Amino acid sequence: MEALVYTGPESLEYRATADPVAGSGEVLIDIEAVGICGSDMHAYLGHDDRRPAPLILGHEACGVIRTGARAGSRVTINPLVPCGTCPACKSGRENICPERQIISMPPREGAFAQAIAMPEANLVTVPEGVAPEKAALAEPLACGWHAARLGIEALKAPPARTLVIGGGAIGLGAALCTRAQGAQGIRIVEPHMGRLRVLRAEGFEAMAPDALNGEAFDLVIDGVGYSATRAMATKYAAPGGVIAHIGLGEALGGLDIRRMTLQEITFIGTYTYTAQDFRDTAAAIFDGRLGDLNWTEPRALADGARAFADIQAGRVDAPKIMLYPEGAPT
Predict the structure, then answer these.
(1) What percent of the residues of the chain are helix, what percent strand, and what percent coil, each to the nearest 5?
(2) DSSP E strands, the chain
(3) What is the pLDDT of residue 106?
(4) d(CA 245, CA 224)
(5) What is the CA radius of gyration of the chain?
(6) 268, 95 Cβ separation under 8 angstroms
(7) What's the rounded Cα separation, in Å, for the pair 67 and 73?
(8) Rounded to whole angstroms, how far apart are CA atoms 144 and 146?
(9) What is the pLDDT of residue 2?
(10) What are the distances in angstroms from CA 112 to CA 36, 131, 235, 303?
């Protein structure tokens, strides 16, 4: 098969690779659409030791099952493969399973390819009429769904004032999911002017970071994860508020621990999603609760290296580039 292979920092090659082999309980899936994630960008830049070259990246995917009893069914793929037997898995927190695997990290190759093998239990059937690029958004949107759910549970009620830091797919997804779960007063801060237009078209109050002035928010979701965004989160969280931290931009710095202590601000690290969060997100996509989701930009998988370079250079307004193994739709 053909695949987009990460071969080293800022280097991707579209080339022939070995066909995937389905193991016990797995099926083969022909990929229709796969999104470029921020974690793919970190790997592309050589910043993720968990993803050593050479490796097929990509974990936000939709496709059609080729083998098994469900052959011919379109599915969206939960890329997290837990052990299923540890205390975390048994309590429904598969995302923190110590033995979890994820496609795009060894030993599992990713979905920037024509096909992939996945456990059948990780597949959610996509109804007729839902486009592949929308179904493929289940993975990044599930990160926002999980963060919104944990934040709202910590507050014990949907927030009246919500701040989302970052207007990429994770930040926009978090805003959409928080709104779908009853949050009010949602603002998004994003420095990229082209992206601000996309966010406003989705009905959100979106602004540059320096436009905030002395406001306080019950829930702050950091979809970026840099020192500067964590500093912003602790500055604008209201007393008794909650910070839900998704982004993995850098490991250290930014938190005002003194203010968080004196104001009893709760900080929650949120990693991916549970299997139930993924199913709930897919259902919300399918029934329209997350909007029309028409904010992706299509590219051919064969042109994936250029797509990565364009993202790195800031030439992309869309929150998400979607790659298509069979060529981008027109």
Answers:
(1) 30, 25, 40
(2) 2-8, 11-16, 26-35, 55-56, 60-65, 74-77, 80-81, 101-102, 115-119, 123-125, 162-165, 186-189, 205-207, 217-222, 237-245, 266-269, 296-300, 320-324
(3) 96
(4) 8
(5) 19
(6) no
(7) 10
(8) 5
(9) 98
(10) 9, 18, 39, 11
For residues 160 and 183, give the distance between their C-alpha atoms in angstroms, rounded to a whole number. 6
Determine the pLDDT at residue 250: 87
Please count the residues of the chain.
Answer: 330
pLDDT at 249: 85
**Residue 214 pLDDT:** 82
Per the listing, tokens 């097929």 go with: 56
Supply the pTM of this predicted model.
0.94
> Between helices 138-155 and 275-286, what is the axis angle to 10°?
110
What fold, for 2-137+293-324?
Quinone Oxidoreductase; Chain A, domain 1 (3.90.180)
| Look-up of token digits 């910043």 | 47
CB atoms within 10 A of CB 290: 24
- Cβ within 8 Å of residue 323, ≥6 positions away: 4, 33, 34, 35, 36, 58, 112, 299, 300, 301, 304, 307
Residue 66: per-residue pLDDT: 97
Q: For position 37, what pLDDT does the model report? A: 94
Gap between the Cα atoms of 133 and 28, Å rounded: 19
Domain ranges of the chain: 2-137+293-324, 141-269
Joined together, the tokens standing for residue 254 give 């930014």
Alpha-carbon span 31 to 248, nearest angstrom: 27
Q: How far is it, in rounded angstroms, from Cα 175 to Cα 199?
A: 10
Specify the pLDDT at position 330. Answer: 76
pLDDT lower than 50: segments of the chain: none
Q: How far is CA 129 from CA 1, 7, 9, 66, in A?
A: 28, 37, 39, 20
Query: In terms of CATH, what superfamily is 141-269?
Result: NAD(P)-binding Rossmann-like Domain (3.40.50.720)
